[in-house]
Structure formats: structure tokens, C-alpha cells
Design brief:
Layout: E1 6-11, E2 16-21, H1 24-30, H2 33-44, E3 58-62, E4 76-81, E5 88-93, H3 97-103, E6 108-112, E7 119-124, E8 127-132, H4 141-151, E9 158-161, H5 164-168, E10 175-177, E11 181-183, H6 188-194, E12 197-203, H7 214-230, H8 232-241, H9 246-252, H10 274-278, E13 289-293, E14 303-306, E15 325-326, H11 330-336, H12 345-358, H13 362-378, H14 383-386, H15 395-405, H16 412-415, H17 419-425, E16 434-435, E17 438-439, H18 449-457, H19 470-473, H20 489-506, H21 518-528, H22 535-556, H23 567-571, H24 586-597, H25 607-613
Parallel strand pairs: 1-6, 7-12
Antiparallel strand pairs: 1-2, 3-4, 3-6, 4-5, 7-8, 9-10, 9-12, 10-11, 13-14, 14-15, 16-17
Helix pairs in contact: 1-2, 2-20, 2-22, 7-21, 11-13, 12-15, 13-17, 18-20, 18-24, 20-22, 20-24
């Protein structure tokens, strides 16, 4: 059955840790991880709760295939109400922490209340206890992990926690594990910090049992791994180039948001691309990229490990950054680079190191810096306020802000608000490139029309990982669609959103979906888990999860007006590339999308839809 059938409830206010049986009826309906944890969350938390109050909860959750021999079975998610958006938040991470939590015998950790002092949670198989974190409060995620491994004299202890950004209230603070893997978006780390919880250190030696049919499971996983190996993206492109393989591709099709979405192509894209990471530097003859790296059980290995040129201005007097660490993924490279017009690969890598070290989301940070640079060029913000000249293209300003945002120092405290609040504060809310308060990732929806609808309707705010139509519109996976038209995109987005919800709830990585469909997931779940995990049922489960999240957001006060895009994308046409002259056609796609979803014209699920899926309106 693969579930451990056990959850850990931690009352931070009382300082207690209690084991509870997993609700298997809910598991049959919502699978695990994103779906199952969100079910627990929506049952237990008032949708109108202040995200940073003790009444909000934070849930760590694994999926039924986490920790198994299924490829990429190392995922876990962090679920809460996000302070950046005021909406449901579910942020997914890889590395080794998720599998270790499962090895310790837990499907889920529900964290509630607020500790009167900084603490960390230590889990050793069945034993769980809260311990004083005075020695690590204020320290980076890197120093925290080193401290906890040393304290327990065990290099295999896995640590997930926050850095200074989560403590100082940066609204997009991340939860970081294994030094450079992160549940990065929506401010899940901010909620963790508000609860005075610094980290979770876990060591599990029990393994994952309860696989329903081990022989069938082995056969299904071996077949699925072959599909990954034989696929050009998961077998070749991602292992060699990582997600950065997309930088030049997206730029060429005119969908790379540049200088706060003023442009759709960046002439410096080649300088910050995967190919650039492989190329020897002129300064020392060494490439930025040291090697690739895999998360637990992964046969793809898309992770990047990089080393900064020791003579670069960002680190020349900082030897602590001379070692190899987590390198640039595509989204971070875009947000730190093209979004700001910066083409200095070493500066981007430095900012990425700081994001991992201090624990903040590089997408929201980079996009917010893009808004700051536009405000600076407009004359709204001055050097005296910022502490530095900050035109588009300034690598110095990027590094300057990266040093300060996590610590809440100087103008870094303003950037920590995110672009929605910052631009509103300085009188130009139209310059915030966000949906529901969360910054866009690296695809301009004027050049990839379906992504505009995916962004607008995403339950956690602007996100590429809730309905990655780029796969179809650009890469032709599973079928090729025209990125420049709106026809058929409502159905495409709906299908991708349902499938993504299943991938996120299984314990497996979404990147497998470059090669796999739900037809590849179904036999693995069917062999591992009790219940009906047929293709037909998985599609219903995905739709049920999506609608449950939507019900929470509606009860939290979000409405149809929150399913929208910034004016720039709907009124300012793309200036160059294949999409030249186009704006995003959201207004054409949204009504059809609502109809296909079984929602009314205001985006509210109908009674028939609720009955069919077994969901309810929340109060």
C-alpha cells in the first residue's frame, strides 16, 4: 500500500508530538502529498486565517511512492496558506529529505500553533521531540544543516528548514533541504518562521514497506525507467543541460520575459544559458558547471552543481563562496538574469547561492528586482533609497540586493515584500508581474498563449508547475499545439492541471512528465497501493484535488478578478519574435475554461460538479 499509514501531529504551542493513524478514506480519494495534505489542511484550517497567525498550519507531506524504487521517488511538499498570496500554498521539493521522512515511518507532519521560543523538530524513526534552537536561530540553512549533522553525529541526518529570510518575514521565504533543494514558492518558509520553527532533522532506518504487489511494482518501475531513459528530454537533454536547456529555446520563440516583461527576447540569453554554463571561462579556463546531480532515486539527474570564478567581483573577498554548490536552474537563471536584463552568469550563480543560503525564492526575488529596476529607470526610486544605482542590466545591483533581502537589511526589506506590495507602495501597481500576488516564472504568455490561462487560474498564484502547457505548445509533448493561438487551450490547461495534481500527489517528480503520462503512473500506483488507480480514476482524482484547492481560495475571499493577468500582458503587444504584435488572449480562454471545469460564469463550481467530485463549498 506504500503509505506508512501514520502522521505526526506537532503542537508547537504545547510542545507535544503525537502519532495518529492516516485517514485512509481520504487517501483513497486524494492519493497523498499535495492532494491528501491539502484535504487535511482544508478540513482543519479556517480559509480566512491570517497566514502568519498561530491558527494557520503547516503540513509536510510525502506521497505513496516517496521512498520507493520508483524513479524520482524522493519528493515531498509543504502545504499552508501562503502569506505572499493569501491563497492555498503547496510547494514541492526534491533532494533526500522526503524519502528519509518516509523511511522514519511517517506520511505527513502537521505543525500547528506557535512555539514560545525558537525550536527544531528531531525525528528518529518513531521518536519525535522538539528541541531548543537558540544556537541556530539567525543562522543560514547551510550552517543549520552542518550544526544538526554534527550535533547528532550522523552525516545521514536529513535537514529541512529556514534561513534568515524565514525569520525576518520575507514574504517569499523558502524551506530548504539538502543545502540546495527547496520548497521555494509562496512563502512557506515565512509561515515556518512565524511559528518559531527553525528546522526538521530526520533520520529513518525503517524503509518503505507495504508495497501491495512487489513483483508487479518492480516490473512497472523498470518499464517506466526505460521510458525515461529512451526519451530525448529525460534521457539526454535534462541530464546534460538541466532545465537550463530551455533558455535559448524559449528566447528564440519570443517568449522569454525580459526587463520586467517589457520585452519578450533577451540579447544576453546565450550568456546565461546551459551552453554558457558548460563553456570554459576566459578568466580561469574552467566552466561554471562542475557536474550534474540527482535527487533520491532519480534516473534523470537534472540538478546542477556549479563553482563561481574566484576572481569575480561577487566573491573575490568571500572565500566561503569559492566551493561548489547548487547551480542555476532555468527559472532562477531567468528571474535573476533576463527579468532584470543581467547577462553575468557568475553574478546569477552568486545570487542563487545566496537564495539557497538565506532561504528565499529566486523567482519572486528576481521578478521583484525587475520591478525595482523599472521604477529606478522611471525616476520613482532613487539611489539614496536603494543604496546603489539600479538600472536594468546591473549585476552589481542584483548582487547587492541578494546580500540584503534575506537579512531584511536596507532596501532589501522592501524587496522582501514582493513586487505586488512594493509597486503599490510606490504608486505603480501595474508594474507588478503577478497573479494573486505571486510573481511569474520564465514564460511570456504573449508568446505561449496557454500559459496565460494556466497562470491566471493557478490556485497558488502565477506558476508554471500547475499546468505546464509549454510541454505541448513548445516541445510537442504529448502533442504539438500552436503557442500563438487561443483555440483549444482551455481544454489543454484543464488536462495539464489534473495530471499535474496526480504527479504532485504520488511522490514523484513532475519532470518525469516530459516522458511519462498518467498511463505510466497508473501501473506503478496500482502495483504499490491498495485501491483503484486506473487511468480514469486518476483523472477524477486530479480534478477533485484542483477543485478542493479552488474551494479553499473562494472561501478565503478570492474571486474571478483574481483569475487575471497584469495589464501589460493584455494590452502591450510583444515587440519582437514570432509573437510580435500579440497580447495574451485570456479574455477569450477564461469563459471556456470555466465552462469545461463545470463552474459558473464567476468561476464557482456548480452543485453538479461538487456532487460529481465529492467536494463541498467551504465557509
Amino acid at each position: 500500500m506504500s503509505w506508512a499509514r501514520k502522521i505526526l501531529r506537532v503542537d508547537l504551542t504545547k510542545g507535544t508530538c503525537t502519532a495518529e493513524p492516516l485517514n485512509m478514506a481520504w487517501a483513497m480519494a486524494y492519493l497523498g502529498q499535495r492532494g491528501l495534505a491539502t484535504k487535511y489542511f482544508t478540513e482543519e484550517v479556517d480559509p480566512k486565517v491570517d497566514p502568519l497567525s498561530p491558527a494557520n498550519k503547516l503540513i509536510y507531506a510525502t506521497g505513496p511512492l516517496t521512498g520507493t524504487m520508483a524513479s524520482t521517488g524522493g519528493r515531498y511538499s509543504v502545504i499552508t496558506k501562503g502569506p505572499l498570496t493569501g491563497a492555498i500554498a503547496c510547494s514541492n521539493s526534491g533532494g533526500y529529505f522526503g524519502a528519509e521522512l518516509k523511511f522514519a515511518g511517517w506520511d505527513m507532519i502537521i505543525l500547528e500553533g506557535k512555539s514560545p521560543k525558537p525550536v527544531f523538530l528531531h525525528i528518529q524513526n518513531d521518536k519525535a521531540e522538539l528541541l531548543d534552537a537558540a544556537d541556530i536561530w539567525g543562522k543560514s540553512t547551510w550552517d543549520t544543516e552542518a550544526y544538526l549533522k554534527n550535533r547528532f553525529q550522523d552525516p545521514q541526518v536529513r535537514v529541512s528548514g529556514i534561513g534568515p529570510a524565514g525569520e525576518t518575514g520575507c514574504l517569499y521565504a523558502a524551506v530548504v533541504n539538502d543545502l540546495h533543494r527547496a520548497a521555494g514558492r509562496s512563502g512557506v518558509g515565512t509561515v515556518m518562521g512565524s511559528k518559531n520553527l527553525k528546522a526538521i532533522a530526520v533520520r529513518g532506518t525503517q524503509g518503505v514497506g507495504n508495497v501491495k504487489d512487489p513483483a508487479a511494482f518492480m516490473k512497472a518501475t523498470v518499464a517506466a525507467k526505460k521510458v525515461l531513459a529512451d526519451n530525448a528530454v529525460t534521457g539526454q537533454g535534462l541530464p546534460k543541460f538541466g532545465t537550463q536547456v530551455l533558455m535559448n529555446v524559449i528566447n528564440e520563440i519570443g517568449a522569454l520575459p525580459t526587463r520586467n516583461h517589457k520585452d519578450v527576447q533577451f540579447d544576453g540569453a546565450k550568456d546565461i544559458s546551459a551552453e554558457a554554463m558548460h563553456a570554459p571561462r576566459k578568466t580561469d579556463g574552467k566552466p561554471n558547471l562542475v557536474t550534474n546531480q540527482a535527487c533520491f532515486g532519480c534516473t534523470i539527474a537534472c540538478g546542477r552543481i556549479s563553482k563561481i570564478d574566484e576572481s569575480h567581483f561577487t566573491v573575490v573577498n568571500k572565500p566561503e563562496y569559492w566551493g561548489a554548490s547548487g547551480g542555476l536552474e532555468y527559472e532562477a537563471a531567468w528571474a535573476l538574469g533576463a527579468a532584470n536584463g543581467v547577462n553575468d552568469l557568475e553574478a546569477l550563480t552568486y545570487a542563487n547561492f545566496r537564495a539557497n543560503e538565506d532561504g528565499w525564492d529566486p523567482i519572486s526575488f528576481g521578478a521583484t528586482v525587475g520591478a525595482v529596476m523599472e521604477l529606478y529607470e522611471m525616476g520613482v526610486l532613487k539611489k539614496e533609497q536603494l543604496g546603489i544605482e539600479a538600472p536594468f542590466g546591473s549585476a552589481q545591483a542584483l548582487a547587492f540586493f541578494a546580500d540584503r533581502v534575506g537579512r531584511g537589511e536596507g532596501f532589501g526589506k522592501e524587496i522582501a515584500l514582493g513586487s505586488k506590495r512594493l509597486t503599490a507602495k510606490y504608486g505603480h501597481p501595474e508594474l507588478s508581474m503577478t497573479v494573486k500576488g505571486q510573481e511569474f516564472p520564465a514564460y511570456d504568455s504573449r508568446g505561449i498563449q496557454g500559459m496565460g490561462l494556466a497562470y491566471a487560474t493557478s490556485n497558488r498564484g502565477a506558476c508554471h508547475l500547475r499546468g505546464y502547457t509549454v510541454a505541448s505548445e513548445v516541445l510537442g509533448i504529448p502533442v504539438k499545439t500552436d503557442p500563438l493561438v487561443t483555440d483549444g487551450k482551455a481544454g489543454l490547461v484543464k488536462a495539464f492541471q489534473a495530471a499535474t495534481a496526480v504527479f504532485d500527489s504520488s511522490g514523484l517528480c513532475l519532470f518525469t512528465s516530459f516522458a511519462w503520462t498518467l498511463q505510466d503512473i497508473a501501473p506503478q500506483l496500482q502495483a504499490a497501493c491498495e485501491g483503484d488507480w486506473s487511468l480514469d480514476n486518476l483523472n477524477v482524482v486530479g480534478e477533485r484535488i484542483w477543485n478542493m484547492e479552488k474551494e479553499f481560495n473562494l472561501a478565503a475571499g478570492l474571486t474571478k478578478k483574481d483569475d487575471d493577468l497584469p495589464p501589460r500582458l493584455k494590452k502591450e503587444a510583444a515587440k519582437t519574435g514570432p509573437a510580435k504584435g500579440l497580447v495574451n488572449g485570456l479574455d477569450k480562454m477564461l469563459p471556456e475554461y470555466y465552462q469545461l471545469r463545470g463552474w459558473n460564469a464567476e468561476g464557482v463550481p456548480t452543485a453538479d460538479t461538487r456532487k460529481r467530485l465529492g467536494t463541498t463549498a467551504l465557509k
